[in-house]
Amino acid sequence: MATNNNNKALNVPHLRFPEFSGEWNKCTINDLATVVGGGTPDTTVKSYWGGDIQWFTPSEIGKNKYVDFSLRTITRDGLDNSSAKLLPLHTILLSSRATVGECSIASNECTTNQGFQSLIAKQCNIDFLYYLIQTKKKDLIRNACGSTFLEISANEIRKIKVAVPVQNEQEQIAKLLSLIDERIATQNKIIEDLKKLKSAIVETLFCTPKESMPAKRVSTYSKEWKLIKLSDICQRVQTKNTGNQCRQVLTIAAQHGLVNQEDFFNKTVASENLEGYYLLQKGDFAYNKSYSGDYTWGAIKRLERYDKGVLSPLYICFRPDLSKVDADFLAHYFESKKWYKGVADIAGEGARNHGLLNISVIDFFNTTHRIPNLDEQKRIAKILNSLSLKLSCEQRIMQSLMMQRNYLLRNMFI
Fold first, then answer.
1. According to the model, what pLDDT value does residue 355 have?
2. Within 10 Å of residue 104's Cβ, how many Cβ atoms?
3. According to the model, what pLDDT value does residue 149 have?
4. How many CB atoms lie within 10 A of CB 177?
5. Strands 234-236 and 49-56
6. What confidence score (pLDDT) does residue 356 get?
7. What angle, 0 to 180 degrees and rounded to 10, lies between the N-to-C axes of helices 374-411 and 167-205?
8. Contact, 285 vs 339, CB < 8 A?
9. CA distances from residue 310 to 93, 129, 159, 261, 329 in whole angstroms, order as listed
């Protein structure tokens, strides 16, 4: 790679393959591609749906470079009786509303709904165009408008100014970035497979209150697990943030645990006065009674990222008694679904109200659970900690790959 630090006035990227030296040509998206909108057949006409023509919506785009099969399909009649257009192989499906600027390449002929302005390349390397449009996402959003949701028109997309090199350089850039995307896809599969493996192992190493022991035992352990109440092994944390001594406001993210609220929401949603919030120390747990698809009985997470933080009194906070329970064992246990039964038994019917579970503090601490002796707890925790460590390592590799990709997108284009 060669840099162009001394040629800032020239129409060339900062980072470039050394065999290329000419300036890039200035043009617009309209010079590079035909922009095509989409449409939706009448949803009340059954004969328009369930055919063999793929029909994409914006939510299906952007996660992967290529897309092949859509969640819903339409028939030839549906295509002919709507504004949907049949797009050729290798069309760039570009979302023009909802999340403006997301894109993927179609692996087959397909159609889209009206939330797209897709790009059919004219005389431009399709992979290069795919990466080029990603560098113009800010321009796409800047030129979008709308009061209910942002949307960019086909004409505005056509007018976006770009710069492109000769065909050979396009191919070289596309080849490099495609190799990185292939590596990212491989790394993502490694991570997803590890998550599935860990999840499967977790479910076999723990048991519900109704079971006397888990499906799999560690080493030579064979005794039944002890039935306990949560209050037997944990105590409630009610320490208030007196004098606003801590300004680290936390929230529970089901996928990420206890995290900084401002980092997670990109804004501060807590009140200025935090004295009424609970003050948590590293290692404390909190229960979020909000439920979602994958977390039907809420989520319980441990504070691991920070030495301390404050949490809304809407959460139930508690601290494990380390003489009775291993903290890592407990954290892994709450990552399983085995504790759901204890909550479900106490919550009963009518326990859900506007996205929150109607579970009192007393009832929560009266939930029953099964645990082994401390020695077996530590052995189980050691196994799962090693898997967690491996997963974290693979996720750091993914972060590094994404940083490389973003660096190249910023510096190999104009």
1. 65
2. 21
3. 86
4. 21
5. unpaired
6. 75
7. 170
8. no
9. 44, 47, 49, 10, 24
Contact 35, 118 (CB under 8 A): yes
What CATH number belongs to 226-371?
3.90.220.20
Say what the pLDDT of residue 308 is.
96
Report whether 65 contacts 186 (CB < 8 A): no
Which phi and psi (to 5°) does residue 218 adopt? -85, 130
The reported pLDDT for the residue numbered 346 is 79
What topology does CATH give the domain 25-164? Adenine-n6-DNA-methyltransferase TaqI; Chain A, domain 2 (3.90.220)
Measure the CA–CA gap between 267 and 195, rounded to whole angstroms. Answer: 30
Q: Where are the domains of the chain?
A: 25-164, 226-371
Q: Which amino acid is at 133?
A: I
Same fold, 25-164 and 226-371: yes
| CB neighbour burial string for 360-387, b if at least 16 within 10 angstroms, e if fewer | eeebbbebbbbbbeeebbebbbeebeeb
8 A C-beta contact, residue 87 and residue 110: yes
Q: How many other C-beta atoms are found inside a 10 Å radius of the C-beta of residue 333? A: 24
CB 114, CB 154: distance < 8 Å = no
The residue among 50, 52, 47, 117 whose CA lies nearest residue 83 is 117
Average confidence (pLDDT) per 10 residues, the chain, 414 residues: 62 95 95 97 97 97 95 97 97 94 97 97 96 96 89 96 97 98 97 96 96 91 95 97 92 86 75 90 94 84 95 95 98 95 74 71 95 96 97 97 98 96
In DSSP notation, 281-338 reads ETT-EEEE-B--SS-BTBEEEE--SSSEEEE-TTSEEEEE-TTTS-HHHHHHHTTSST
66 contacts: CB under 8 Å, gap ≥ 6:
104, 105, 106, 107
Is residue 333 within 8 Å of residue 302, measured between CB atoms?
no
Q: Please name the amino acid found at residue 412.
A: M
